[in-house]
């Protein structure tokens, strides 16, 4: 099995770690949470020890401000065991743009 296929197989074989929604959030070891992005700012940084360069990061977003342009949320960069950077294109217009994120650990255990 090739490299990328093997990476995905391991990720879905072990699956994401789960916690109750009330415990999710931004913290030193968080692997899921919600991050607010300020209006007119195109980036947001999340500090967490749970991210690695081989992690799969799932994202979604929510905003109550209507837009006629599709917003795209991307993971801009990852610093192993430290942080990840989200970029939003184009920059959000509202004050309540929220990125929901979850890190799937693909490391062999």
Q: Which percent band covers the strand fraction?
A: 35-45%
Report the helical percentage: 10-25%
User: Strands across the major sheet, in which order?
Assistant: 1-6-3
Roughly how many Å apart are the termini?
19 Å
Radius of gyration (Å): 15 Å
* Total beta strand runs: 6
Oligomeric description of these chains: single chain
Question: Could you give a short account of the major beta sheet?
Answer: 3 strands, antiparallel
Anisotropy-based shape: elongated
Low-confidence stretches: 15-25
- The total of helices stands at 1
Question: Mean of the pLDDT scores?
Answer: 77
Sketch the topology as an H/E string, one letter per element. Answer: HEEEEEE
Structural class of the helices, strands and pairings? mainly beta
What's the gist of this structure?
This protein is mainly beta. The protein is 11% helix and 38% strand.
Produce the secondary structure layout.
Elements: H1 3-14, E1 32-37, E2 43-47, E3 56-62, E4 72-79, E5 83-89, E6 97-104
Antiparallel strand pairs: 1-6, 2-5, 3-6, 4-5
Structural write-up:
- By secondary structure, this protein is mainly beta.
- The protein is built from 1 helix and 6 strands; from the N terminus they run H-E-E-E-E-E-E.
- It has one helix at residues 3-14, and strands at residues 32-37, 43-47, 56-62, 72-79, 83-89, 97-104.
- The strands form 2 sheets. Strands 1-6-3 form a 3-stranded antiparallel sheet, with no helix packed on it. A 3-stranded antiparallel sheet has the order 2-5-4, with no helix packed on it.
- The longest helix is centred in the N-terminal third of the chain and has 12 residues, at 3-14.
- It is elongated, with a radius of gyration of 15 Å.
- Residues 15-25 have low confidence and may be disordered.
